[in-house]
Structure formats: C-alpha cells, structure tokens
Amino acid sequence: MAMTTKQQKIFIILLSINILITTTSQVDLYSYTTVKVQNDINESESSISTHCYSSEDDLGTHHLSDGSAIDWNFNVNFWGTTKFWCDFNTNHGSGNYGVYTRKVHKRCGDMCV
Q1: 86 Cβ partners below 8 Å, 6+ apart?
Q2: Whole-number pLDDT of residue 4
Q3: Per-residue confidence band for 64, with pLDDT thresholds at 50, 70 and 90
Q4: 48 near 89, Cβ under 8 Å?
Q5: Does the pLDDT at position 59 exceed 90?
Q6: In this structure, what is the dihedral angle of CA atoms 79, 84, 85, 90, given to the nearest 10 degrees?
Q7: What is the 3-state secondary structure (H, E, C) of 48-82?
Q8: Which residues contact 94 (CB under 8 A, 6 or more apart)?
Q9: Of 26, 71, 102, 107, most Cβ neighbours within 10 A?
Q10: How many CB atoms within 10 Å of residue 76?
Q11: How far apart are CA 89 and CA 46, in angstroms?
Q12: What are the tens digits of pLDDT across the range 20-46?
C-alpha cells in the first residue's frame, strides 16, 4: 500500500525527531566537561607553549613548565559537536592536536587528561 504525500511528510518528521533524540541523548547537555593539558616531559628546562581554542572560545597562550598544567570547563553544545584544539610548541618540535571531540568524550568521559 502506497503512502500519500501527507503520510510521507508525517513519516519524515517523525523519523527526523527520532534521529534528533538519539543524537542528543549521547551527550549530557547539563554536565561540565573538563579538559586538562599537562607538561609531563620530565625535563627541567623543557617548557611547552600552548594555545588552545574552539570555534567559540580562545583560551590564549600559556607556558607550561615541567609538571604544570592548564585546565578548563565547558558545556558541550546541543548538537554534541564541540571541539577544542591546541597548538603545542616545545624544544623538540611543534604540532596542532584535537584535544576534545565527541570521540575523545566517549573514550574518557567528563574528565579528559
């Protein structure tokens, strides 16, 4: 039995709502997530220069001596697409890394180190 145009629209709306509920239920919108970046190079004269940011927040540049750390808290956005990146510069090299994504959150929960 073929669906009418009205039935097709209702089906698509219900399917979209179901997908939205499934997607948003994977992220707790009311809890804070903490990300901590720590210098564990274990060399007394080896510091790390970090610059961490998301598409909405710029956390600035920080210089981490051995054993020191920076951390920050945030709420994941409604869609669960919040991402943070950090630029790292050391005496040994430099790089840019995604320090928080949905994939990282699934692996380490609300406290990512």
Answers
A1: 37, 50, 51, 52, 53, 96, 97, 99
A2: 66
A3: confident
A4: yes
A5: yes
A6: -160
A7: EEEEEECCCCEEEEEEECCCCEEEEEEECCCCCCC
A8: 87, 88
A9: 102
A10: 21
A11: 10
A12: 443 344 455 556 788 888 888 776 667
User: Sign (positive/negative) of CA torsion 10, 11, 14, 20?
Assistant: negative
Measured CA to CA, the distance from residue 102 to residue 92 in angstroms comes to 29
Per the listing, tokens 């948003």 go with 24
pTM of the prediction? 0.66
**How far is 85 from 72, CA to CA, in rounded Å?**
13
For the record, the structure tokens of 10 come out as 């209702």
Contact yes or no for 86/97 (Cβ under 8 A): yes
Q: Which two tokens stand for residue 34?
A: 């903490």
CA 55 to chain centre: 11
Q: Which of 39, 35, 36, 99 is nearest to 68 (CA)?
A: 39
